[in-house]
Specification:
With 84 residues, the protein is mainly alpha-helical. It has two domains: 36 residues; 39 residues. Helix content is 81%, strand content 0%. It starts with a helix and ends in an 11-residue tail after the last helix.
Length: 84
Amino acid sequence: MNSRISSRIADGRSRRNCRVIGAALALLVWPLVVFTGCGDELEREFRQAAIGGLETGLRAITDGLLDGLFAVADPNGGGTTGGS
């Protein structure tokens, strides 16, 4: 039974590590793409193609952060179980 618990903890840590690495890479690559000076036409085309994905990603990150903050602030989920 302890091996199941430690396995779940390890899985959670590895997922978290993958997310952190992915976010770090995204933050490192973004300035390279933005500041390399590709040319006005290419920059406009890239921005128009990427804006939808970036917007969706930022919303997902924001939602995740807010969910995490609420989970820390209210670990019971804020729901009431029971009647009047």
